[in-house]
Amino acid sequence: MSDYFLGVDGGQSSTVAVISDETGKVIGWATAGPCNHVSAAESRAKFLRVMGECVLQAASRAGMPTGKPRFRGACLGMSGGPEDKAGLLHEVFDAGHLLVTHDGRIALAGATMGEPGIIVVAGTGSIAFGENGKSESARAGGWGHIFGDEGGGFDVVRQALRAALAEHEGWGPVTALTPALLEATGTANANQTLHLFYTPEWPRSRVAGLARLVDQIAQEGDPVAGDILQRAAMQLAMLAGTVRRQLWNTRDLPEKPLRVAWIGGVFNSTTVLERFRMLIELEGHAVSAPPAHSPAVGALLIALKLAGVIVLPYQVPVIKS
After folding, report:
1. For residues 148 and 8, which has the higher predicted lDDT (pLDDT)?
2. Domain segments of the chain as ranges
């Protein structure tokens, strides 16, 4: 009987599951909706439904035996915190070695192939996570949309709506963000938009998707939108710098420049990415680069390592679209 390994990236916008055999070759994968919160009974049911659908679909594509999947090693990276999810997973699958961790850790594993470095994640929310050559780790951010997630997609749109509200009340400058947000949401004014964003029809992931609109308005020359994106880049670079100071001092930096990778939809903005890279490299002895692999592959690499299976760089799995 073959051994199977599972890696899952469970985010605020989507869930991705990948399955490999004992050689590290990806033989099954699937995507599903978000599964990041389980605080209420309804949320727990949604978590189990989404996770079950995603893992079972990936298992089917991998040709695994029918019934409850069993993995030799499994790693799941979750936004919104892992603690409240680990106890539920036995209802979905069994695993000989299991790690449930946060999304920053799996993103770093995929980005640097286990090498020391820092990953900055800016999707719906934001977090920075790093690990040095002593296997010491540190994080910054990732505290959720109420108390943190600076520079994430939801925060970018929140700042855009705040600018529209300021214009609406007469104490902020006129901005092209206002008509753009009204058109995108089908609302008559910024106050209506605000209340719409509190409804179930506009969860945080959908609101965060409007960050693309903010980027478009910035590219068209709107200074308010441009300032929002510049500030987002500065906040994301600040998260990376905070992690760097926790893990490295000026005397124990690695010989090679420190690798700082990025991932997430906010970095699709040229404005954000260029400013972020400039700020990272201004600190010196650092290079910013895109991730080598996805967070889901990072989770899979951790799952393999948990079970004592080391995958060489040329064997790293590639997920076909």
Report:
1. 8
2. 5-113+294-315, 116-291
List of residues 6+ apart from 166 with CB closer than 8 A: 172, 173
Residue appearing with tokens 């969860």: 203
What is the C-alpha end-to-end distance of the chain, expressed in Å? 28
Q: Quick one: average pLDDT of 12-32?
A: 87
- CATH architecture for residues 116-291: 2-Layer Sandwich (3.30)
- Whole-angstrom Cα distance, residue 239 to residue 86? 27
User: Do 74 and 303 contact (CB within 8 A), yes or no?
Assistant: yes
Minimum mean pLDDT among 204-218, 229-243, 293-307: which range? 293-307
Rounded distance, CA 101 to CA 79, Å? 9
- CATH topology agreement for domains 5-113+294-315 and 116-291: yes
Residue 313: how many other CB atoms lie within 10 Å = 8
Q: Are 197 and 207 in contact (CB under 8 A)?
A: yes
What's the mean pLDDT in 187-202? Answer: 93
Top CATH class of 5-113+294-315 equals alpha beta
**Amino acid letter, residue 260:** V
- Cα torsion at 321, 99, 236, 267 (round to 10°)? 0
